[in-house]
Specification:
- This protein is mostly helical and 92 residues long.
- Helix content is 76%, strand content 0%.
- It is built from three helices and no strands.
Length: 92
């Protein structure tokens, strides 16, 4: 017995035919495909909301303290870290 709730979603016939074909090609049922798509969409929306919240926090910190780092400094630091990582990989 499944813990899932059966919900009804109305899909126009043309879209349903496309989804059935996609599901069939991937070896899944329409239900499995739909759940996968909905799960991925929910994950993407939650990740986006978390990123927007983090961006807002960073913006508020900038407004409060006025500190920022110039792009060239960020790029230089990233290049230095990439070089260090490459050297570690080469020495491993």
């Amino acid at each position: 017995m499944s813990d899932s709730d059966n919900s009804t979603v109305h899909i126009d016939p043309a879209l349903k035919a496309r989804l059935v074909a996609l599901a069939s090609r991937s070896g899944r049922t329409l239900d499995e495909l739909a759940q996968s798509v909905l799960r991925n969409h929910a994950d993407e929306q939650e990740r986006g909301a978390a990123e927007r919240a983090e961006d807002e926090q960073r913006w508020q910190r900038y407004l409060q303290y006025g500190q920022s780092m110039p792009f060239e400094a960020v790029r230089s630091r990233l290049q230095k870290l990439a070089g260090e990582a490459a050297r570690r990989q080469g020495g491993a």
